[in-house]
Prior knowledge:
Elements: H1 2-25, H2 39-67, H3 76-95, H4 101-128
Helix pairs in contact: 1-4, 2-3, 3-4
Amino acid sequence: MNKLVTSVMIAAAIFFLGMAVLRIVFFDYQNFPGSGFSVEELSSWKSRTIDPTMYLTLLYFIYRYFIGKNPTSTIWPVYVVTICFSFTQFVALFTFDKVNLFMLVNLLITVAAVFIFRIAHNRRKKEVSTF
């Protein structure tokens, strides 16, 4: 299980690094390879999933600030972002005009990542709380 968690974390880090570089350096390139979306459809999908994910995550951490709780491990923020992203993708399935295989596969990958990140969080939380 440790190798699975480690490999998923490395794959996620590489993916996020690649997406960040693409969005910073090649901003004019708007389409996601293999999505089957036009530029307008992909822009709409991103507006319905990525933007609300950021806002829900920020709202959650503001709430945690006001109740006086800190994240319990370093993976906790990644876990929360992934949960919010899964939620917004699920909602997009019912509110988006064109549902395709890309959206379903992306949702399944994100849900699988939620479970892996939860395992990583539990493992890291045990490491932190032992001292």
